[in-house]
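Problem: given the chain below (306 residues), write out its structure.
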Amino acid sequence: MAKNVFRPAEIKKTDDTILLKLTKNFAPPEEEVEEIDEPVFTGPTPEELQEEIDRKRSEAEAERQRILSQARAEADEIIKNAEKTAFEEIKKKTDQTAVMKQKAEDDAAAIIKDAENKSLEIIQEAEQRREKTLGDAYKEGYDKGNEDGYKEGRQEANRLIDRLHVIIEKTLDRRQAILDETEQQIVELVLLISRKVVKVISENQRSVVMQNVLQALRRVKGRGDVTIRVNLADVELTAEHTKDFMQAVESVKNITVAEDSSVERGGCIIETDFGAIDARISSQLNELETKILEISPIKTVAKSST
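Solution.
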């Protein structure tokens, strides 16, 4: 039996290492580690992903070009239809003004015919009175032995002839005034129609500013930076297509879009290092009016009367 109590003489010192056996195991139990299989990635490689991105990008660019081409075609078709409608409207108004002019000419011809008839009557009356006056004056002068009666008859005949000349001159002046007034109305009507047609197109067709900008850029000389000044309502649309402008006009390297309150909708001003190109709607209308007035028959009449 083991001894629990020792006397001092019974205890001996020793240098040996003695391991005491524990009555209880205090080590934590070993846990079983579950082996987990790592998943194997079977998706696309980075190269395949890059190829897919490039393909999607190419498809998006092709679709963008298709939409842009379709929009341009639709814009061209709209402009052509508007121009056709404007031409038909101008032709219709021109036909109406032609009828007005013909009526004015007929009225003038009737006035001249009436004046000619009255003039003929006055001439016949003057001739009759002249013959009678000359006969009476000759007889009276013959009877009195002087020429007072003859001179008096001649003065009366001259007075009637002068009156006839005044009537003819006033008739011709009136005819010219009618023709001038009719031609002026025709020119003003054509100019008014042109202004209205251009205003309606520029305000309702958003593509008008695109066409104006593109045409103006094609007139740019040299290479460099360009500033496009447009109406506030056209700034966003113009800014969205700056890359398209640079692709269409190779001489332009950089484009800046700026708002300008002096530019009407649909128009633009192109500023470069070499100067500015004015493509505003008002400037184009003024040029159109100048061309119309240059070929207007009013100028011909005015020149011939001076």
